[in-house]
Amino acid sequence: AQTVTQSQPEMSVQEAETVTLSCTYDTSESDYYLFWYKQPPSRQMILVIRQEAYKQQNATENRFSVNFQKAAKSFSLKISDSQLGDAAMYFCAYEGGSGYALNFGKGTSLLVTP
Amino acid sequence: GAGVSQSPSNKVTEKGKDVELRCDPISGHTALYWYRQRLGQGLEFLIYFQGNSAPDKSGLPSDRFSAERTGESVSTLTIQRTQQEDSAVYLCASSLSLSETQYFGPGTRLLVL
Question: How much is the CA Rg of chain A, to the nearest whole Å?
Answer without folding.
Answer: 14
